[in-house]
Amino acid sequence: MPEKKTRWDIFCTVVDNFGDIGVTWRLSRQLVAEHGIAVRLWVDDLRAFERMCPEIDIHTSQQWQQGVEVRHWASDWQPVEAADVVIAAFACQLPGAYMDAMAEREKTPLWMNLDYLSAEGWVVGCHGLPSVKYRHVQKFFFFPGFQKGTGGLLRESGLLERRRTFQQSPEMQREFLQGLGINPAQGAQLISLFAYENTGLASWLDAMAGDTMPTHLLVPEGRILGDVERWLGVDGLKAGALHVCDALTVQVLPFVRQDQYDHLLWCCDFNAVRGEDSFVRAQWAGRPLLWHIYQQEEDIHLDKLEAFLALYVNGLSETAREAISGLWRAWNAGDNMAGHWQSTRKHWPELQKHAETWCLEQASQADLAAALVQFYVNWI
Predict the structure, then answer these.
(1) With pLDDT > 70 as the criterion, what percentage of the chain qualifies?
(2) Pairing mode, if any, of strands 85-89 and 62-65?
(3) In the predicted model, what is the mean pLDDT of the chain?
(4) Residues with active-site annotation
(5) Which of 218, 282, 311, 349 could cross-link 289 (Cys pair, CB 3.0–4.6 Å)?
(6) What is the reaction catalyzed (predicted)?
(7) Is residue 157 predicted with pLDDT exceeding 90?
């Protein structure tokens, strides 16, 4: 293990509101708590950060939160000494003066580009390879992933044990839900919905409203609210809003801390998630899920979607595989969801068991923070 005083700098530009900062904030805290590393997290948008860490002072350029030194990455960059390990999250461009500081260090730092999560086959071949150089400082590719030969997924020590304890305790779940003002009807299925704008939502809400099973849909504040408003025929949905439409109850939740969001996912029978951070956390929940992947130009995101599906549906029966794959594809195309949802519901027990199996398979690999530390140990 590296010595306790090893210093790491992690740079994050907030592109998609919460995904980038969500990943880097989790990673920073874990490196401090589990590996004894001194971490500076450089963030260019403290307002987005404040949503998941309300203690953040958006007017302070340097502060400590949960053992992490948080620095505001401002346009008027002030020179600082480069760290032992430098992580550019999601290919963000480091300040020129900082790159000079890396090159001027007596001991060259390890410089890594922590890339976006992907299940595509080429990731295994590129993980850990050298990238560009700045003067004599070499940058390396570091890819999170789902297969051996990648950097794995963010997973704190003891996470699955805490999740199992929580899911096996109806009292703990009831207390948590009531703390958010959630009181589902007896026998109602709980579904969380965190997604980008989606034209397929109305058909899915129609299907749930017309179902024989009652559904309590929990919608954290976010980009999908506009589509929910249109379906309900209301304006200005805010946290606390509750609407009942036949078998469907829709409830808007406030944006919560990361640990509270984990508990929300653990409570739900099915989780619709988006981007990267919530996508990974839904997999650790061990429950069936629906992923809204971040849209990219020329639809290259659909290749990433198919690459993940090819791995995820392994072990499912052919009909269950077709049902969940059809649901994911329809959702990401903004197509009609009704038939796909009904097909998915028919395979519920198999999909529940499969979600837990997938979770355990992923947990058998090294977690992302541990893999980064091991890469540094091997490098030095």
Answers:
(1) 98
(2) unpaired
(3) 94
(4) 20, 276
(5) 282
(6) dTDP-beta-L-rhamnose + L-arginyl-[protein] = N(omega)-(alpha-L-rhamnosyl)-L-arginyl-[protein] + dTDP + H(+)
(7) yes
Measure Cα distances from 194 to 141, 201, 227, 282, 372 in Å.
Answer: 30, 12, 12, 11, 29
pLDDT digits (tens, 9 = 90+) for 1-55: 444 579 999 999 987 656 688 899 999 999 999 999 999 999 988 888 888 888 9
Close Cβ partners of 309 (under 8 Å, ≥ 6 residues apart): 325, 328
The model scores a pTM over 0.85: yes
- Whether the CA torsion 119, 124, 128, 129 is positive or negative: it is negative
Same domain for 330 and 227: yes
- Going by pLDDT thresholds of 50, 70 and 90, the confidence category of residue 238 is very high
The answer on 103 and 20 residing in a single domain is yes
| Residue type (1 letter), 100 | D
CA distance 108 to 88: 16
Structural domain boundaries, residue 210: 159-363
192/199 Cα distance (integer angstroms): 18
Q: What is the CATH number of the domain that holds 292?
A: 3.40.50.2000
79 and 202 belong to one structural domain: no
pLDDT of residue 270: 98
Give yes or no: residues 105 and 229 share one domain. Answer: no
The set of residues, in sequence order, having a beta carbon less than 8 Å from that of 60 and lying 6+ positions away, is 72
**Residue 372 shares a structural domain with residue 317:** no
pLDDT at 299 over 70: yes
Whether residues 196 and 61 fall in one domain: no
Q: Two tokens at 71?
A: 């620095």
The residue with tokens 């541990």 is 370
Q: What's the rounded mean pLDDT across residues 248-266?
A: 95
pLDDT of residue 45: 87
